[in-house]
Amino acid sequence: MITCILLWVVIKYLPVWSTTTDQAIFGEKYSKSQYVLGPKSTEWISDSELYVYAGYAYMLGQDPTTINFEHPPLGKYVTGISQLLFGNAYLINLGLFIILLVMTHYLASILISNEKIKALVILIFAIQPIIFSQLQFALLDMSFTISILGIFVCLHRKFSKAWLKYLSLGILLGMVAAIKYPIPFILIPSLIIGVVAFREKQIQFLLFTGLGAVTVYLLSYTLYFYHDHSLVDFLSFEKYRYVWWTGDRTMPKFLIFQNLFTGHYPAWWDGGAEQITKEWNIMLPALFSMFVFSFIWVKRKFWNVLIASFGFIMILVYGYASAAALSYLTLLIPFWLVTVGAVVEEALLIKSKRQP
What we know:
- By secondary structure, the chain is mainly α.
- The chain has 18 helices and 2 strands.
- It folds into 3 domains: 1-89, no CATH class; 98-139 and 247-356, no CATH class; 147-230, no CATH class.
């Protein structure tokens, strides 16, 4: 099944992946964009185009705080590596997509035993336009989702050495923080790691998690320190960025729910004009509705509750943080599908027991 899905996406996006990415075009566009000229800009550069330009510039040695300082550099390094290796900034998305499907399968295996239901979960996830359409762009959502799915898989897995488990969790947590600006999105994964550590009576090993996370996060800024910046400079930069993110912002909250149920929302940066999500389809609100029902009725086992709670709490966090784009659902859809799949499996088992 996965082979058929991959064959389909390769055929669909081969024209995008087989074309050389011209960095000069993105550089010219960036120089005239809102990021450089502000209200005097003559070009509007999208997030994807910005990440293509930034990632390649980082790979050439540019200080990552000078271009798109808003988000950490790790996810953009992936795009830059793709450009250097293949001459195309988007081809690496195929590898990310494969890893994303595999990690979704591992997440499903935590709650679901029925192989057919697990296969259906993967299929429904893979055919979502909001997911596969990202294969033609340089966005951060796939690598971000892979890292958080890795945290859940690592938490559930049995390790021979507890310190190794929590160090691995720290590395994954550091990757999460180094891909997207971590406040407030890092709080829920960190809390979940703490809950599992408390449950397993391994609180003392959280030191390894903290060390791993801080190390990976700082390593993602190696080029910043290479440009003669100190740790004190970095702390000042982080303070500046925090003020930038939490300052006088005009974005309305909870627009992601309007986008989820209708496929459009008011663009606050453009006088309230309607922003249309082309990838929207009726399956998205239907899936969310089924997830909410499943969240209420899910079997009250630890991992069922943990996974379902993450899928529910994170959309509230996204809503409060004014994350309106449906690409943010890349992270949530695996948790919604797995929760629904677990309830379906439970219902089938109950039905089979009732049959004479």
